[in-house]
Design a protein that fits this description.
It is a single chain. By secondary structure, the protein is an alpha/beta fold. Helix content is about 35%, strand content about 15%. The protein has six helices and eight strands; from the N terminus they run H-E-H-E-E-E-H-E-H-E-H-E-H-E. It has helices at about 10-15, 25-35, 80-90, 120-145, 175-195, 230-245, and strands at about 20, 45-50, 65, 70-75, 100, 155-160, 200-205, 255. An eight-stranded mixed beta sheet has the order 3-4-2-1-5-6-7-8, with helices on both faces. Helix 5 links the parallel strand 6 and strand 7. The longest helix has 24 residues, at about 175-195. It starts with 10 loop residues before the first helix and ends in a 9-residue tail after the last strand. One of its GO terms (molecular function) is oxidoreductase activity. It holds the Pfam family adh_short. InterPro entries: Fungal_SecMetab_SDRs, KR_dom, NAD(P)-bd_dom_sf, SDR_fam.
């Protein structure tokens, strides 16, 4: 990250009383919820999930997690759900200070990472883009009308190193790579728009590192143990990066250790 001047306060530390974690019922998202709840300055955390069997939201809407947290049903591919999210946030009476978009898809039933061009299928590619690219952008659209240009706000989309075009030396994984690259472009474009309209807002793409979750589990055989991180460890590092953000970090693509990743 760029050096900080002595008088500048990191944006996210000014306030993160109300936090929204999209995809906060599983994996890294759930660990992020727990990490935020460990911060006494956080007053409320809203975790969203699709309500799949086994998720924290299954069978309930507004299920309390603790006195300071609850879960909401949200399917990021459903425009009705996104509209409802916007309304429910508006009903709270204040905008969120921090939104972390941790929902994503790498494999799902017949959807699997492609090893070659011959395995690319239209429906599977569209599914990757719908969840990994359009989902975060449309969550940002749902939240944006609530934001005040005088208040600090941070939007973090969890991206992936494989979404870096400059770092792509192996090929394969067409849909996942391209959908994360599209997410990065969306966030960079959003940051440019917000720079004028919401000058205290940050939009950031962040790579959490390879984390031991259901998303990565089928593909961990080639990952050395020292490069495979627990959800809690990844969440801790993500929140550390967020804590250190400055306004000029908006529109960047950062690694879990704060280093910049090539587009």
């Amino acid at each position: 990250m760029s050096p900080k001047s002595s008088h500048e306060v990191p944006v996210a530390r000014r306030s993160r009383k109300l936090c929204l974690v999209v995809g906060g019922t599983r994996g890294i998202g759930r660990a992020l919820v727990h990490g935020l709840l460990a911060d006494s300055g956080v007053e409320r955390v809203i975790a969203t999930g699709r309500g799949e069997p086994g998720a924290a939201t299954a069978g309930n809407d507004d299920q309390p997690v603790s006195g300071r947290a609850q879960t909401w049903r949200l399917d990021i591919t459903d425009d009705h759900d996104l509209g409802r999210l916007a309304q429910r946030l508006a009903d709270i009476g204040r905008p969120p200070d921090l939104v972390i978009h941790a929902a994503g898809v790498l494999h799902d039933g017949l959807l699997q990472p492609e090893k070659s061009l011959a395995q690319c299928e239209r429906a599977h590619l569209m599914r990757s883009f719908e969840v990994n690219s359009l989902g975060p952008l449309l969550v940002a659209r749902a939240v944006a009308p609530l934001l005040d240009r005088k208040r600090a706000f941070t939007f973090v989309g969890l991206s992936a190193m494989v979404g870096s075009i400059g770092d792509n030396r192996l090929g394969g994984w067409y849909g996942y790579r391209a959908s994360k690259a599209a997410l990065n472009q969306f966030i960079r474009t959003l940051a440019n728009e917000w720079a004028g309209r919401l000058p205290r807002a940050i939009a950031l793409a962040l790579h959490p590192g390879t984390t031991d979750t259901a998303l990565s589990r089928p593909f961990q055989s080639g990952v050395s143990p020292d490069k495979l991180y627990s959800p809690d460890r990844s969440a801790t590092r993500i929140l550390r990066v967020i804590d250190g953000l400055r306004q000029n970090d908006s529109g960047r693509f950062l690694n879990w250790d704060g280093r910049e990743i090539p587009w």
